[in-house]
Amino acid sequence: MTQSDATRVIRRMVAAFATGDTHDSHEYVSPSYIDHQGRGGLPLHGPDGLQQVVRAAHRSTTPQLLVEDLIANETRAVARIRWRFAPPGQGDAVERETIEIIRVEGGQAVEHWGAQAWSRTLPRAAV
């Protein structure tokens, strides 16, 4: 079974968040990309918009990401992702779960919607 374009794109986006590396985001994010979740209530656009969000996620630590579920067809993918942020020497870790939806055209993400399902603080000893 081959992966759909949407599956390939969302996996590359998750990898960017996991590593902080967005140097090739122009390959899988369209210049017309709209991140409806955005930052600060404003949508973000194009590969630069994705790069802004990835930089923000890496501001104090490198998050650990685990794709719990991934459902896709050729043009859309939905992923349930578990994130863990453990800032070194800055107290307790935070774990959260998000639902990410992308729409793909021509092998590139053109839209993204996201929502946080839940969040919790983990005592430092649990990390």
Helix content: 10-25%
Count, helices: 3
Low-confidence stretches: none
Order of helices and strands: HHEEHEEEE
Q: Could you tell me the number of beta strands? A: 6
**Oligomer status:** single chain
Named at the architecture level, the CATH assignment is Roll
Amino-to-carboxy terminus distance: 36 Å
Protein model, in words:
With 127 residues, the protein is an alpha+beta fold. It has one domain: Roll (Nuclear Transport Factor 2, Chain: A). Helices cover 24% and strands 49% of the residues. It is built from 3 helices and 6 strands, in the order ααββαββββ. It has a 6-stranded mixed sheet. The chain is globular, with a radius of gyration of 15 Å. The model has no long low-confidence stretch (mean pLDDT 91).
Features:
single chain; alpha+beta; Nuclear Transport Factor 2, Chain: A; 6-stranded mixed sheet; 6 strands; globular
Strand and helix map with partners:
Blueprint: H1 5-19, H2 25-28, E1 29-39, E2 42-45, H3 46-57, E3 64-72, E4 76-85, E5 93-105, E6 108-122
Parallel strand pairs: 1-6
Antiparallel strand pairs: 1-2, 3-4, 4-5, 5-6
How would you sum up this structure in a few lines?
Strand 1 (29-39) and strand 2 (42-45) form a beta hairpin. The termini are far apart.
